[in-house]
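Schema walk-through. Below, the input block comes first and the output block second. Nothing else is stored per chain. Lengths vary across the set, and this one has 512 residues.
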Amino acid sequence: MAAQALMVLGTASDAGKSLTVAALCRILRQDGFDVAPFKAQNMALNSFATREGHEIGRAQAVQAQAAGLEPHVDMNPILLKPTSDVGSQVIINGKVTGNFKGVDYYELKPLLLDAVTAAYQRMATRHEIIVIEGAGSPVEMNLKDRDVVNLKMAEIANAKCLLVTDIDRGGVFASLVGTYALLEPAERARFCGFLINKFRGDISLFLPGIDYLEERLSQPCLGVIPYLHNHGIDDEDSVSLERRAVPPPNAASAEEKLSVCIVGLPYLSNFTDFTALEHLTNVIVYYTRRPVEARFADVLILPGSKNTISDLLWLRENSWESAIEEHVANGKPLLGICGGFQMLGREIRDPHRIESDVESVAGLNLLNVTTILAREKITRQATARFSESACFARDRSDPLFTGYEIHLGDTLLGEGTQPLFQLQRLADKESLRDGAISADGRILGTYLHGLFDSAEGLALLVNHWRRIRGKRASTIVVDPLAERERRYDQLADHYRRNLKLDLIYRALDHQR
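--- output ---
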């Protein structure tokens, strides 16, 4: 029997679709259903490597975890990773197909539709309920005939749909009424109601508005979800960094806290690497594109990048190189992850012109390593422990870190340079060296995403940095994985209190 399908569509991007799908996945799982998430096409720089080595959107990995499942490539068969304002890297069924500009991408529709349909059908045979996420708005009229992620997906899955809108932005009446007005009658018939998201204030003042909308749209309001502050669940893309930003600390306020500055690269990817750090009460995490705001940081992090060479050139053009050199000269710790690690080296070579029109570019020359970009992307889950040479290695009987790799090319260590980790790739059990570490242990580089997501690794790195900065070592009491589960339950409780679940279950029952 095919799975029942519930689709979450939005009036615009960032309306709250991803979080709503995660909440519904956790609620349905709590209520005893075998539920799984699905998004036909995702555009995001935040991605995740599955156990099988396939790359999918981070949002679908989060939703799978909320559903109690191992993330799988069938949950997100198409991933677009922007490489410029007009083009993206296209990933189909977890593997790179190529780089395409928008107009060229849409010529792939037959291939995309086949991939989406096949992936959904496989999911529908394995699970009882599929919660599907749309993208942007379902009524972008210039793109609707090429759609594979919104109403076309609803048709493929024969899904009941709910429409989410963001009241915090304003314009909720126009966005809801306008969206329904642009739907064809057969499309409107799929909808079982609308959801008001990110509400602030006194709900009694909004009740007349709900009455108006229900009458105007002939659709029930499925709930009004209050704004959820600091939910701590990984966001889909960097648009959320504006909400997560905190002012840079000053010297007085950060005296006992460890302040961590993450450079806000234009093509910053996988900022979810830092979620566990953000949960620590004795750590201040902030993002900035202004070098002057890095001066109070104890630790500076160069994060992952979808376009490493472009972002490296951006650093130089915006006075970051001198700010980073000053940070290092002051004896402060520096960490580079993935693309950030590549930038720390002597040189990045691009012989196949994968990322740029230049064959090579000089790195920041802070680690004696050289990166050579390659066409084939490495996407694997891995565990790691400090290498024998790492200056702060301790008991290595058990892996301290669990994460994943998503990168192009290899980084070669120069003479006298020591690796940071001994890495064990899960898919093929291959053991190899990863990253690099300076002789004094202040500069670290690694390809391992998610290195803060294990309690032991998180504690060791944070206390290593605290000692360098002359701060007392602290006990890390937060287990990132246990904290993640707690936050999924908290999210489900928040939605459960404010959703009309009986109407949603009734809509699903009509599919039987």
